[in-house]
Fold this protein.
Amino acid sequence: MSPIAIPEAHRIELEVFDGPLDLLLYLIKKNEIDIYDIPIEQVADQYIEYLNLMRMLDLNIAGEFIVMASTLMLIKSRMLLPPEERPEMEEEEEDPRWELVRQLIEYRKFKDAASFLQERETVQENVFAVGGDVVELDENVDAGLTLTDVGIFDLITAFNAALKRLPEETFDGLYATVFSVSDKIESVLNAVKTDKTFTFSSILAGATSRQEIACLFLAVLELLRMRHIVVSQDHHFGEIMIAGYPE
Amino acid sequence: MSTDESLVELKEIVGALILASRHPLTLAQIRANLRAVAETDKDRGGPFATARETDVRAAIEQLLQETRRSGAGFRLVEVAAGYRFQSDERCGPWLKHLLHVEKPHRLSRPALETLAIIAYRQPLTRLEIEGVRGVNVDHILRVLMEMQLIHMVGRSKLAGRPMLFGTTKRFLEHFGLGDLKQLPGIEQLARIDRHRADELAQSENTGEDVPDTAEADEADEDAKQPEKSATQKTVEDVDDDEFDEDDEDDDE
């Protein structure tokens, strides 16, 4: 899938600081997969689907995503071989998925540790002390998307669902309406002002072309980055709610 | 109300010092202050010049308990290896209004994860962080440095002398932690020594792509003998052989 053509002038540089391991853990959780027995074919296919979606959105994805895609393919092909025919260099009876599983589990532990830090941070926001610590973040420093409960991959899942609802793309002629991210930013901001909260899928539902959906999606990401809106979920993989940034 | 005649207690001095300090005050700083004042003001300071660490610690312990029970909206807490008075977190909404605190700056998930890796595994190189996260962390490291949550703590001895990162005092303050030991599971998640880092750094030189943790761990056999230097905090390498086993609890 090639990137959806978004007019150059309205293109937004969005860094995604999540990596391939984040995506894999997301897919494992989403599919309720046993991490010790990953159905590599299923996961690899989904991984590549998400990778294509990110490319379509022209997100700045790290090269590591591509490396991981090839790693998954390699594991997949090794899994097809009976153990006795696997290449010599591997220690016998070692499962080809082993190294990846080890890495995922280690990383997941650090994600838990990050959750602990996040909880502490929320508590500390309410604590004041003499000469207390105020960590100032320079407004010019782009810390990436400040997504808390909802991750980038949750948003991409919603984006993908919207794309799939769309009828086959038809050639809409030379007079096709061209949507821009900045227009969509305004419409989302207006929606936040009037409706307070609404679902992500409800704003995507009105879109009639892939390009419009992509513009809406990028508008939401940009508004998140600029801290104009927040997204939340009642439960994992639940409906994504959008609201104005709390004052 | 204390008058000139009534004798001031050590506990009161300690409390006053902590209250007026701009930063969390450590035991050592309090004792240094007591000694310095005793020299310039023998009459009043003299009796406290000989206060031992246990005396000061006892005074702090008393203050910790008393202020916890006082219901005054603030209490003494241990933060970043020192002590400070701080407001009760339940009073946050009113304080935020008073102090015009608007949108709090929260760290993004990737930033928090990177910070967690550094906090647990410090000192470590960028390459090691990337080995865990599986993705480039250049930008995040820059932001965290700028926020003074991490800093460079030295350089690895290896070729290229890559920077070693560690968390700052400010990190502890930001998250309201007394010290790194308060991080849950630090014993399991941290690692024992620098050998593994050396392994990783060597693989950097030879141009290998992904650091092979399995091999590096094997090279760590001697890590089983606890030979810790001052900067090395921990006990056991993570998940050496049987990771199935000790991961069970967080795999629900």
